[in-house]
Amino acid sequence: MFKFLWNYFKGYVIIKIVGFSIERFLNLCLNKNINIYKLEEVNDGVICRISIKDFKQLKIISKKTGCKYKIIFRYGMPFFIFKNRKRKMFFISIIFFVFLLYYFSSFIWTIQVIGNNQIDNNQILAFCEDNGLYLGAFKRKINIKNIQSDLKNNFDNISWANIRIEGTKATISISENIKKENTTQNNEPCDIIAKETGIITNIVTRTGRPLVKAKDVVQKGDILVSGELFLKEGEEIKGTYNTYSDADIKAKVEKEIKVNVPLDYYIKNYTGNKKVTYDFFAFNKRFTLKLFNNIKYQDYTIVTSRKQLKLTENFYLPFIIKKTEYKEYIPKKKTYSIDEAKLYANKLITEKIIEEIDFSSDILNKEIFYEQLENELIAIAKITLIEDIGERVPISVSYQNEGSNIENGTDETTNSQ
Fold it and tell me: Are strands 264-282 and 316-335 parallel, antiparallel or unpaired?
């Protein structure tokens, strides 16, 4: 690509060489460091390309060898300028266009955020805008290092941030921490309570005082592991101490998922009629081109698409074209058979299971019961599963009296003053 542009700006000609000593002609060109390239042999001679500067040296070589040459085609910027030398406004427009491109290249016209799953794009963009990185921002005034550091300091979920500017495009790459529980932070005193009603199948306590054991029936909200520890001297309780509870607690739980499937539903039969409007955004200002006053379709679907103009992969321009299509359709009523309704209900139940039940849970049994009403089918899935039912809730910090032998069911520590 670079070589092509270089040859275009220098200019070159395509010539045809004829005669009985073409080989000697080419050897002399080689001896004089004349660059002849893209040679192509034809019936009565050779066609090749040569730069304007080297072309001027061919006259002497032609006399020595008796070969003749003629220009077939002229190509490049010098010939273009010579051909249009009297069109002053044309060249002024080109200079202005080049200057305009250089001016546009000094600003940011598109911003991409990648790597975020927990944090919304708008939050990151709004924060960056407050710190100087926004659409239309002057690139030299953007303090990339400060914004990267501030992103990590102001968003707890961001462990790493990098901002890369290429052309007129800014790419914000971030890496997020593993999502933390909302109820308590590490080392903050807390209890573990049951978030579901069930039968304990397994409990492994690392810190805290367990209040339940395997085969115990627990209700939602019951304390399973207490963060309140006893300070004892022998059998006498001298005080209490709150700590962070940590445990794996599995329980057998029963859940119910219910879905309603209407037997009557509608599909869209598109007529092929559509109307289109265009919005043109220049420098973040909107200009609307409406080809009609209002939509006269009774039922229609709206489809929008946006395209930002760009010269290269990373050289975006501050111009966006938004296309809005209004497609007319005629709703057609259809009715599920009972078997079809059951299949659709099963699909909805599966989607809810994926959405609502943690992937680490083990499903032991699933039964689906159907109830047919006049215009709908009700499906109820009763699911038995093994899942982690522990949920941490903070407790107030307290440290009373001095003592020894902290009793937490797992470890022993001594504390003295």
Answer: antiparallel
Question: Residue 413 pLDDT more than 90?
Answer: no
Q: What is the mean pLDDT of the chain?
A: 85
Query: Taking the chain, what is the end-to-end CA distance rounded to the nearest angstrom?
Result: 78
Pair 240, 228: CB distance under 8 Å: yes
Domains defined along the chain, listed by start: 2-82 (3.30.70.260), 91-180 (3.10.20.310), 188-263+336-417 (no CATH), 265-333 (no CATH)
DSSP helix/strand/coil, 412: coil
Half-sphere exposure of 126 (CA within 13 A, CB side): 7
pLDDT-based confidence at residue 396 (cuts at 50, 70, 90): low
Q: 82, exposed or middle or buried, with CB in 10 Å at 0-12, 13-18, 19+?
A: exposed
Burial of residue 165 (number of CB atoms within 10 Å: 0-12, 13-18, 19+): middle
Phi, psi at residue 69, to the nearest 5°?
Answer: -140, 155
Secondary element (H or E) of residue 30: helix 22-31
Give the pLDDT score at 15. 92
Residue 3 DSSP SS3: helix
Tell me 342's DSSP state: H
Q: How many CB atoms lie within 10 A of CB 134?
A: 16
The single-letter DSSP state of residue 93 is H
- Which element (helix H / strand E) includes 128? helix 121-130
Residues 6+ apart with CB under 8 A from 50: 12, 13, 15, 34, 35, 36, 37, 58
Task: For residue 169, report the phi and psi dihedrals to the nearest 5 degrees.
Answer: -115, 130
Identify whether the C-beta of residue 307 lies closer than 8 Å to the C-beta of residue 293: no
Buried b (16+ CB within 10 A) or exposed e, 46-76: bebbbbeebbeebeebbeebebebeeeebeb
Digit-coded pLDDT (tens) for 53-63: 888 889 889 98
